[in-house]
């Protein structure tokens, strides 16, 4: 099940969006400002963020800038009363993926969320199929005709991330931020260690390979797309 973080200081609108998103089959986390959102992201995997702009302590622009600076690539949808072109331009320049002006149509919100998730190359069922093997995000498992394995959570999230964006290079810092959180106390050697474990388990598989990009990080290549 996809997990969506709604960052909104209007409690009534927050509850309305939460209810409608849950009806559409999403799991919803809530934060009333950017600071709370960052705290949640330290401990939770989030597939998409919906955020307001005008919020106390840390506004939506500051939140988006912090996330993109930390190399978070998850989709972000701004929902705000600010309709000026300059605000829209700033939002997209900082890294938002979509922009809706209040008052919003909740059915349209659901359509935009689904489109953003598709664009993020994550399947509707939270699964990746490569050849005859299946990566199941909800069960942290990989299965196939001659394969059945459950991975530790961090190993699975790391592999799922790389295979969701084949041929895209991720730096170690990006992977640390997205898999372990913004304020993690691990270092880059932890990423290398997890990659080494994954290679040991899957290096003989023909479906995909994890490739080291010297001086940068890692990418995955899928052989059955």
Describe this protein's structure.
By secondary structure, the protein is an alpha/beta fold. It is 41% helix and 24% strand. The chain is built from eight helices and twelve strands. It has helices at residues 11-23, 34-43, 60-69, 85-94, 106-119, 153-164, 172-180, 188-202, and strands at 3-7, 27-31, 48-51, 76-80, 98-101, 127-130, 133-136, 141-144, 147-150, 170-171, 208-213, 217-222. Strands 2-1-3-4-5 form a five-stranded parallel sheet, sandwiched between helices.
Average pLDDT, all residues: 89
Shape summary: globular
Q: Which structural class do the helices and strands define?
A: alpha/beta
Radius of gyration: 18 Å
- Taken as a percent bin, the fraction of beta residues is 15-25%
Helix content: 40-55%
- Please count the beta strands (DSSP E, at least 2 residues each): 12
Major sheet attributes: 5 strands, parallel
Stretches where pLDDT is under 50 for at least 5 consecutive residues are: none
Side-by-side strand order of the widest sheet:
2-1-3-4-5
* First-last Cα distance: 24 Å
Topology overview:
Layout: E1 3-7, H1 11-23, E2 27-31, H2 34-43, E3 48-51, H3 60-69, E4 76-80, H4 85-94, E5 98-101, H5 106-119, E6 127-130, E7 133-136, E8 141-144, E9 147-150, H6 153-164, E10 170-171, H7 172-180, H8 188-202, E11 208-213, E12 217-222
What characteristics describe this protein?
225 residues, alpha/beta, 5-stranded parallel β-sheet, 4-stranded antiparallel β-sheet, 8 helices
